Structures are given as structure tokens and as C-alpha cells.
Amino acid sequence: MGIKIDALKCTGCMACEMACGYHRDDGFALLASCIVAYRTREKKDYFGVIVKEEDELLIARPEGLEVKKLGASEEPSEPAQKADASAKPMLLREACDMCEDMEVGPMCVKFCPVNAISPA
Amino acid sequence: MEYLSADKILVVDLTTSEVTEDELSDELVEQKIGGAAINKYLYEQYEADNPVVVGTGLLTGTLFPASGAAVMTAKSPVTGNLCHCPITLKVGLEIQFAGFDYIVIKGASDNPVFLWVHDGIADITDALDVWGKNTWETTDTWRKAMGDDLIQTMVIGKAGEAGSDLAQVCLNYWASGDRFGFGKLFGEKKLKGLAFRGMGLLEIADAEEFVDQALEILDDIREGDFIGKKGIGDIYAAMGQSGVNAWLEPLVHRHSACYNTPYATNTFVYLDEDPATLKETANEEPGFLITELYGLLGFKALGLSADDACRMLKICAKGGYDAAAVAHQAKAAGKTSMGDIESALADFSGAGPMHGKGVFSPWCPNQPLFSFFEEAEEDPGGWWERRQAVAYIFGIHPIFAVMSPELVEDDMLEMAGVGTELSIEPEKLNAAVAYLYK
Lengths: 120, 438
Fold this sequence. Notes:
A: alpha+beta, four-stranded antiparallel beta sheet, 3 helices, 18% helix, 27% strand, globular, B: Aldehyde Ferredoxin Oxidoreductase,  A, domain 1, 2 domains, 37% helix
């Protein structure tokens, strides 16, 4: 059970990231989100979403989905490394818990205005 | 102020290089609410020093739908009026989390400087190395120097440094809602720009209630008439400019949205890469993000091809020129080719096309988009002014405000109360709006 992301539907608005941050901090903040919009290639318009799950990173890029096992010898791909530049690295963030304590379910799914995120 | 706020007002004196901080009082928020109205209040406190005020709306950076805008307020060096421009993309968001609700920049520096605002700290920093550089080079320089590609900037180019009436404060690399020549004001202050980054947290008075209500409003918005539309091409169609979409379409790569805004108001065109490319291109500068409507429209009216028109937008943004004003002045001067327009940029003067009373940026179309607004039928001009005023006070994306009747003032007021525990009634909103026109 997890979430799935259609990166081509995503408009990079970051509502998912803020909704996740609210779930973590009970306030509006981005530092603890386990779903992050990567947006460092601004001049290329290359953007998508990364999710930290229990055992893997889910990297939703325009050309398709990539799943990277955590702890494998292979390094995370560059988009994952650069996702949040100077912010808290993805690997140090808590894994997605599907907002198990929220009545409405995963907040990123609920707050995505273009339905790019859905339960898997 | 305890909630939805960093509780700090920053006052920067460029003449003395002094930086001071004040608290944001509950009383001021209850009286003026936020955004443009508090910006104006602060402008008046420091009017003798010709300040520029940058501030967030009361709901900016929250989960309230379309809460992505901050506001820049100053006396326009072109129109002579006190006026307000939206700060969109992710820049308004970053301002909110960088540690200050409002920033007053007064006086003028002797030497080029920029203001680096990060995690509640503000530094007036030397900008001699980027004075003379274009907006793209400057944003790249600051991001590299600080080692953070997510730094958000408000920056001028050659136009602002040279004192052009057409100078615009750009956002990162792209055009902004500055249609009042604030870039010229930055140049006069020797202020190359502002850079923001922050990891702040906004406390919420009643967090659960706030988020539940935000979700209800978003669910209503999802039923809106704009659903299924995206990008600037569909906005042009809604404005009655039906030919633009097909003209531009061969260049369109993707559409993107400003922070938490349900409609993607920005369209990226690939000019030196196949627009259908999905993989990351090795080309560092394959195209341009169109964030403003009237520049492209103006260049199309001059007879430029879509490719040339978009390249002209890129030239304008790099130089920090208001593209709408450039197209307007080019038409008046009889310049109808990309080369002729580019060669004449430094010679143009005067304002660009305006609509409204000159208080809010004509960046936002002065008509409903996609949707029916009853008030717009009765009084189109009054409806637009009110809609913009309320958006600029709460930090709502001004263009989304004219396409979503689901966003209503009562909800904004209620959310302001739930989020802050302050008493903010409709009469106070009416007073704050009226204050913006005094």
C-alpha cells in the first residue's frame, strides 16, 4: 500500500509537500515532508516529485517512474540527490506513513489540485 | 502576532546600512488584515525615504487554495502613484518562510547591494560582482554563492540599472507582475535585488479546523469551470484571444502552477529543444517560462512569429524589461522585428498598457476567466478592483481570483479567524479595501 504519482499531470504547485509538512508538524512547514517537489532544474522546466517510503525512494519524473531501494549499494539518482538542495536530505526524512492518523487519508492525495497523486 | 506569521517586520535602511526589526502587532493585523493594506501602512510610516515594501498576505504560504502570492508596494516612478504588484511563482512562499512578514527597504545605497534574507536573518550584501549582469546570471551567481538552487530572487537587470521606465523586478529568471517600473526604483536605490530562503514554520491557531475548511473549499474549486483547462493558451482563449493558443502550441513544453494554485498559469516553451522532450535535456537554457500575458500578446500583434515573440520575452526578462511595455512602445515607434525591437530597448520610455485605477498591477486580466461572476455583470470595473484588493490583502493568486468564484470573501475572513484567533469581520475588510484607494 502506497501512493502513485502521475508526473505529467503534476504542475509543481507544492501543495502535496505542504500538506505532508502539516501532517508532520501540525503547522505549515516544508522541512519534514516525505513528499517533495523537485524543482532545482528551473531553467529547464524539469520537475517532478520524490517520495520517501519505508524501504525505497519513489521518483516520479516526466519520463517515467523510478523506484530506488534504500540501502542498496547503488547511489540514488541525481534528481533524488538534488531534490531539496540545501534542505533536509530525503534520506534523513521520515518515511511516508500514508497519514495513518488522518481521517481523510493521505493528505498529499487530498490536497493535490490536479489529481496527480492517488493511492496505489 | 502568534499565528500564520513570523511575527517580524524588517526595516532596511540602505542609506545607513542599518537593519532593524519590529514585531507585527495583533492590532495592526486586526485593523489592516495583511498584504497590500499593511504594506501601504508601512509605506506611509517611512514615506519620506521613498520605501519599497515587500509583504505577505494573511493566508500566504498556507493550505488555503491559491495562497501563493506576496505583494510589492511602492510609488511607481512611471505613474507617480502608490501601487501594488503581485509576487508569485514560489517566491511569495519563500518570503513567508524566510522569517519576516514584511520588509521595508528605504533610502538608497551608494554602492550596489542586495538583500539576503534567510531563516530570520537579513544581510545587506555587496552586489558589485553582479552589477551589470543580467537577471539570469545574477540569480545563478547568488544560488551558486549560497550553495542552494532553491533560493528565490527578486532581481533587476540592465534596464533597472540604467533607469529605464520599462524596468521590471523579475522573479528568478522570469517576468513578474511588476508593471509599474519598480525595477527603475531598485536601480535608483542601487538595489540589485532580494534573495530569500527559509525553513520557517507557521503556527495555526486551530490547525485541524483550518485544514478541514481549506479542503472543503478546494473540493468546491475542483468543480469549477476552469477544470480541464491549463496554461496561458487557455487563458488567452478565455480572454477572447482565440488565435494565440494554436499559434503558440508548437512550442509548448509543459504548464506549471504557482504555489498551491489549482490552475497552471505558467507555460514553458522550448525554443532550442524539441518541446516534446520529456527527459532532462543537456541544454541548460532550452526555453522560457511565460508568466505574463500581455507581452506575448503585444509581440504577436506586431506580427512576430511565436518563436520570435518568445525569444523577445526571454530577452526582456534577462534585461529586466517589462515585455508588455516593450511591445507597447515598439508599436508606437513602428518597430516590428525582433532585431529592431531589441536594438531600441534602451531608447524606449513611458508606461506600458494599463487597465484599472492604477492601484493594482494590470498583469491580471480585468475580466472573468472561464467562469461567471454575477458582480462582474453589474460593474465589471468595480468587480475587478475589489477582487484584486481582496486577493492582495490575503495573498491569493490574483489571476486565480478572477477564474474561481468558489473563492469567496466570507471564507477568507473565516479562515483568517480560525488561523489567527483574531477578530476580523467583513467591516474590517471593507475598511482595508477602502484604505487602499485613499
